[in-house]
C-alpha cells in the first residue's frame, strides 16, 4: 500500500510540474466553465460531509468499547475540524464562498454506522469491529473524494488548493491505516471470542 501512495504522490508532483500557468486564462471564463462548477459543487459536497462526520464521530466515540478506539475517534474528530478549516481555505483560494451541499452518500454511510451501533451489544468487541468498519467506509469515501479533487485542482492550475487537498488526503489514508491496525492487533480477535 505505501508504494501505491508513493506512486500517486509522484504522479501528482509530475503533473504539477507539467501544468501550464493558468493565470493567463480569464478568471470569469474559468468560473463559468463546467469543470469549475463541478469542482465547486464537489467541494460543497465534501464540506457538508466533513461537518456531518464531526457529529457522527462524537456518537461513535461514545459508543466505542475500548479506550484505544475511543482515542482514535477523538483524534479523528480533532483532525476533521482541521479538514473543515482547510476546505474553507480552498474555497477562499478559488474565490468561492464556503457552502454546504447535501451529501446523500455520507448520510447513507453515517446511517449504516448508526445501525451498527443499534445492532451490536453495548460494551462488546463486536461493536468496536462494526464501528471500525463503519469508520473505514467514511474514510474510503473521503479518500476517493479528496484524491479526485486534488487532481482536478492541479488540472485547473489551483496548485495551492491542490496542496491543501493532498494534505487532507494523506491524513485520511493515515487514519484508515490506523483503524486497520487497531482491528488487526486485538479487536477482531477479541470479538471472535465473544459468545
Automatic annotation (TrEMBL):
Gene3D superfamilies per UniProt: 1.20.1260.10
InterPro entries on file: DUF892_YciF-like, Ferritin-like, Ferritin-like_SF, YciF
Superkingdom, taxonomy of origin: Bacteria
PANTHER family in alphabetical order: PROTEIN YCIF
Descriptive protein name: Ferritin-like domain-containing protein
Amino acid at each position: 500500500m505505501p508504494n501505491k501512495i508513493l506512486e500517486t504522490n509522484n504522479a501528482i508532483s509530475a503533473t504539477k510540474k507539467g501544468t501550464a500557468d493558468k493565470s493567463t486564462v480569464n478568471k470569469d471564463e474559468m468560473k463559468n466553465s463546467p469543470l469549475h462548477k463541478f469542482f465547486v459543487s464537489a467541494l460543497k459536497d465534501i464540506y457538508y460531509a466533513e461537518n456531518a462526520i464531526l457529529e457522527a464521530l462524537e456518537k461513535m466515540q461514545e459508543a466505542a468499547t475500548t479506550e484505544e478506539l475511543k482515542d482514535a475517534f477523538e483524534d479523528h474528530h480533532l483532525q476533521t475540524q482541521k479538514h473543515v478549516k482547510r476546505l474553507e481555505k480552498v474555497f477562499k483560494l478559488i474565490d468561492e464562498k464556503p457552502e454546504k451541499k447535501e451529501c446523500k452518500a455520507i448520510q447513507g454511510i453515517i446511517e449504516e454506522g448508526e445501525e451498527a451501533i443499534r445492532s451490536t451489544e453495548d460494551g462488546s468487541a463486536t461493536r468496536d469491529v462494526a464501528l471500525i468498519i463503519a469508520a473505514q467506509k467514511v474514510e474510503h469515501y473521503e479518500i476517493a473524494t479528496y484524491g479526485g479533487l486534488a487532481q482536478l485542482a492541479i488540472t485547473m492550475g489551483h496548485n495551492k488548493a491542490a496542496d491543501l487537498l493532498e494534505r487532507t488526503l494523506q491524513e485520511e489514508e493515515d487514519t484508515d491505516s490506523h483503524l486497520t491496525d487497531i482491528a488487526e492487533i486485538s479487536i477482531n480477535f477479541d470479538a471472535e471470542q465473544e459468545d
